[in-house]
Amino acid sequence: MSETIIVYYSLEGNIDFVAKNLAEKISCSNVVRLETVKAYPTKGLFKFLHGGKDAMKGFKPELKTALPDLSKFDIVVIGTPVWASRPSAPINTFIEKCDFSGKKVFILASSMGGSSASTIEAISSEVTKKGATVVASTSFVNPLKNQEKAKAAIAEFASKVN
Ligand SMILES: Cc1cc2nc3c(=O)[nH]c(=O)nc-3n(C[C@H](O)[C@H](O)[C@H](O)COP(=O)(O)O)c2cc1C
Question: Which end of the chain is more exposed for a tag (fewer CB within 10 A), N or C?
Fold first, then answer.
């Protein structure tokens, strides 16, 4: 039996919704929501400025969440919002600090309408460098506002992870 872990960052709940729905669909109880020591702003222009700048620089913020020991898992699902067409900065920290050798990786990304392609590509490239194989990825647009559509896409994605 393959063991699966879902690790994600979500500032405003969209990827949280996707990750939790996926966990339910694949009966996965290993779900880790990453949180930063210094919280990112959730309102106004600063929301885009802070996170966007960090994402563009490839910054790795300190995490408050204890990082999981990936050695117990064969499959790692990574979830992130798109920040300035890049992975959200906390995902950079997670990828840098964990050992991905031999892991099968699945990627979930969420945006507000822009393309998720370069975000998925950046994560794929980093985990591949660290010895993982990326099996599949999918992207969502405002899943919290389009919950039924998102759930259908999550069900389809779940069949690939299982
Ligand atoms: C710092 C920041 C940068 C963002 N950059 C983009 C972007 O480049 N393209 C886009 O379509 N959405 C962008 N968004 C919107 C989020 O990707 C989108 O709302 C996503 O669904 C949020 O997921 P979350 O609720 O899990 O945080 C950005 C949001 C933030 C906070």
Answer: N
